[in-house]
Amino acid sequence: xxxxxxxxxxxxxxxxxxxxxxxxxxxxxxxxxxxxxxxxxxxxxxxxxxxxxxxxxxxxxxxxxxxxxxxxxxxxxxxxxxxxxxxxxxxxxxxxxxxxxxxxxxxxxxxxxxxxxxxxxxxxxxxxxxxxxxxxxxxxxxxxxxxxxxxxxxxxxxxxxxxxxxxxxxxxxxxx
Length: 176
Fold this sequence. Notes:
Order of helices and strands: HEEHEHEEEH
Structural class: alpha/beta
Strand order of the largest sheet: 1-6-5-4-2-3
Low-confidence stretches: 1-28
Number of strands: 6
Helix content: 25-40%
Strand content: 25-35%
Number of helices: 4
Distance between the termini: 28 Å
């Protein structure tokens, strides 16, 4: 938990273009400057992903969760991965308790939890622009140890490029 503010500062610097070569700060390079991948030290090597539980934010106000889930299904099907999605409760106290029923029946090999941070709408002339930070964390099954973190500075509700980049990084890391 103590790393999150530091990571947020690094991510802000990277997304705002305030640091030349900012991708090196978080240990990744990406063709999209709005995407940051942060692999974390894993307790064991990755096992092949078979079933992914995609845990979505409670609301579609900033991110179209149905479209995001469908895009993940299309992207992961060629790898033989089955995707099931669920939603956070508005006032989520214990996420694992909310996920328990799906985890018990679906038995995911991995879980990708997606959150929205720093959502804001600004007006540029007569046009309204929505920007937000999509944050996703990969866990093994019902585990609590984060394996990978993904961040994406988005400007619309539909973000298929984010899904493509997450899948690319999962493949490169040995999960697919």
